[in-house]
Amino acid sequence: MSAPQPLAGLRVLDLGTRISAPFCAGILGEQGAEVIKVEDPGRGDFMRGIGPFDDGYSLWWAVEGRGRQSVTCNLRTPAGQALFRRLAEHADVVVENFRPGTLERWNIGPDDLPDRLVVTRISAFGQDGPYRDRPGLDRVGIAMGGLLHLTGEPERPPVRPGVTLSDYLTGVFAAEATVAALYERDVAGTGHGRVIDAPLYGSILRILEWTIAGHDRLGLVRGRHGNRIPTSAPMDNFACADGEYVAIAAGSDMNFSRLCDAMQRPDLVADERFATLDDRVANTDELHGMVAEWCAALEADEVERRCVDNNVPVGRAYTASDIADDEHMTARGDRVIVDDPVAGPIAQQAPYPRFDGRRPPPPRGAPELGADNAAVWRDLVGLDRAEFDAALAAGTI
Amino acid sequence: MSAPQPLAGLRVLDLGTRISAPFCAGILGEQGAEVIKVEDPGRGDFMRGIGPFDDGYSLWWAVEGRGRQSVTCNLRTPAGQALFRRLAEHADVVVENFRPGTLERWNIGPDDLPDRLVVTRISAFGQDGPYRDRPGLDRVGIAMGGLLHLTGEPERPPVRPGVTLSDYLTGVFAAEATVAALYERDVAGTGHGRVIDAPLYGSILRILEWTIAGHDRLGLVRGRHGNRIPTSAPMDNFACADGEYVAIAAGSDMNFSRLCDAMQRPDLVADERFATLDDRVANTDELHGMVAEWCAALEADEVERRCVDNNVPVGRAYTASDIADDEHMTARGDRVIVDDPVAGPIAQQAPYPRFDGRRPPPPRGAPELGADNAAVWRDLVGLDRAEFDAALAAGTI
After folding, report:
1. Whole-prediction pTM value?
2. Contact yes or no for A6 and B321 at CB 8 A
3. Closest partner residue to A146 among B131, B207, B320, by Cβ?
4. Is residue B177 within 8 Å of residue B198, measured between CB atoms?
């Protein structure tokens, strides 16, 4: 069961708070890197205090904090900064998401740290440019990256994607770039770690499809299209008899013909209103009306079954409860039990993706604040007992 | 200007179609890897035929196809399969998103290819499990990964995020895992390439915040909350006098107090209805009503300016036009001109993220179908003129 992990042997310092930088570090950790989270003494990561709570304990922290050790270090003091610089001598990567300039002000910027470190810097707006110093959070990245304007129904206000998407997306992009920089350092043998600049808005902008090209060449300013795509049909979410929603994506000729079979309406394939994708797009309302009527008469499970039987791409809008009950996710182990040191076993999403078909080992539970102080400051960095006790007494750690 | 690239020297074969696998390969390409796209002779990638079109040329293809070479190879024939196996001898990575089992049926599965290759496999449902053989597209991943149900207004049907999110997100996760596998191969020195299994639904599931933990421990089945977060306020999008929307995220005590300054309502800080985050959450409707009223009386630019002046996280819901005009994005070069071989210069999103503060070189434009056949099949793989001409004549390439 315990597969070898591709990033074993690397050490990552998570200076992040909230989601984006910690998520980046966590991905590396789930692939074998050792991750040490460096937190403010007494207070720790913001995520420790945000709901939902189980008996006062943050379940969101339990997820985002998993798979790492915790040490405390007051980076606002010269003594803490000196300690951190000593710790950095033992690391390969530092991931952070303070406002640009903060690390430099604390004398722990890239120039103050070993040249071989990869320093992965996530921020709302990036390390340079006129908005560099602006505050920003996930939502700001989604808005200014251009996705908010595209999400929602045409006649209604924009809607956010239902999770802190720019935080996570930036975290994954940053993790990829981090490993690329490590590859260069250790394989090309430059020995030099890169400084990575990953703004929240930029990750969103990068996945904006043809939005920029369409504006440049056609003067198009994309708007919201709800669940439709203006160039494809049938393609929508449909309400079923039990009130659940099913997404059906059957735009291609082949998928459309399969959907007609699923609906027991083979006549529609020959219907000239729907003969080509262009025809179907031109007559989307009529076509979707028929699919909607079909779905409305059946339970979601039944719509799904008939589509699957006919090879039509289909997916129910899964809830947390559907995820818990799904036979495929269960068979693949997509929910994993993480043993939290405070709350005990908690079902969470498993590490992703998977190497060589093996289930990755479950991450260790989110650490209590400073749980690894002794192991890291004494055993790894080499503080003697007197130094360690003094640092504790002074509130440096 | 032309910075060294961290993945220079690696060669990636893009066997993908549509978005997810090509995007994965493209990320590696934008960091220096050479990417060779292998396409069906005569037809090529689906993206070449999807709108929006500029004078018949797909602008979406121009974006997703950039940064790579194109060769043709009919993988449905033994001759094409044999050619592909020869090409694979020269590669480090194969990225694909056919249905599971397809490569094996074509005798080009991981067991048929050199052991040192990293084979990155994207699919709707993964390489094993009961739904393995089901068809699926982006929307299905968003639905069954659990994000669709969470996105939209509480009293209305779910809404898709406005781009093909599970395609892109899976592509980035897969790129990260690919580089991790290369790191292990070349640094740990195993010499062995991993097979990566990245299903679309799994990338969405991975970023589902506390959804699974909350269901497990509290029995919570999360629903849709529109633009609000049930544990934070003020946090929403607000309509301005000019009809534009502004996202304001000011949940913390400090940000709330700054927002009160921006609104010239310092009295609200002392208002007991809004004293703590819990109070603000309990009185969200009242609080948001006041912020909405303030925004409704001002143009979006002015709301943004006042928030920025007071250090409040704020972002307008940018359109393609806003992105084109934005001074920060312009200063940072987030729009890059890609020289397309068919359509000429097209503004697109720049490679992301950035290394050492340098602007990455603009990717080469999306190749015409088979544009690099001679360079790859003759010069790299070593077909002689007779073999090459015969392969062309037979439709193998």
Report:
1. 0.98
2. no
3. B320
4. yes
Cα-to-chain-centroid distance, residue A13: 19
* Continuous segment of H or E residues that includes residue A235: strand A235-239
pLDDT higher than 50, residue B1: no
Beta-carbon separation of A163 and B156 below 8 A? no
Q: Which of B6, B135, B159 sits opposite A312 (nearest CB)?
A: B135
Query: Do residues B151 and A159 touch, judged by C-beta distance below 8 A?
Result: yes
Q: Which of A169, A179, A321 sits opposite B221 (nearest CB)?
A: A321
Do the Cβ atoms of B144 and A169 come within 8 Å?
no
Nearest chain A Cα distance for residue B52, angstroms = 7
ipTM confidence:
0.97
CA–CA separation, B89 and B11 (whole Å): 11
Give the Cβ contact number of residue B156 at 10 Å: 14
A4 to chain B: closest CA residue: B184
A-B interface: how many C-beta pairs under 8 angstroms?
A: 466
Angstrom distance (rounded) from CA B157 to CA B72: 43
DSSP string for A138-164 = HHHHHHHTTSGGGSS-TTS-----SS-
β-pairing, A118-123 vs A195-199, is: parallel
Are B13 and B91 in contact by the 8 Å Cβ rule? The answer is yes
Contact between chains at A247 and B148 (C-beta distance less than 8 A): yes
Q: Is the pLDDT of residue A1 over 60?
A: no
- Write out the two tokens for A9: 């042997």
Give pLDDT tens digits for A236-274: 999 999 999 999 999 989 999 999 999 999 999 999 999
Q: Report the 10 Å Cβ neighbour count for A11.
A: 17
User: Is A45 a known active-site residue?
Assistant: no
Cβ <8 Å between B144 and A205: no
**Which residue among the candidates A14, A167, A236, A261 is catalytic per the annotation?**
A167
Q: What is the pLDDT of residues A105-160, one digit of tens each?
A: 999 999 999 999 999 999 999 999 999 999 999 999 999 999 999 999 999 999 99
The dihedral region occupied by A266, where left means phi > 0, alpha psi between -120 and 50, and beta the remainder, is: alpha
**Active site residue: B14, B45, B167, B236, which one?**
B167
Q: pLDDT tens-digit profile of B8-54? A: 999 999 999 999 999 999 999 999 999 999 999 989 999 999 989 99
Task: Supply B393's token pair.
Answer: 């004549």
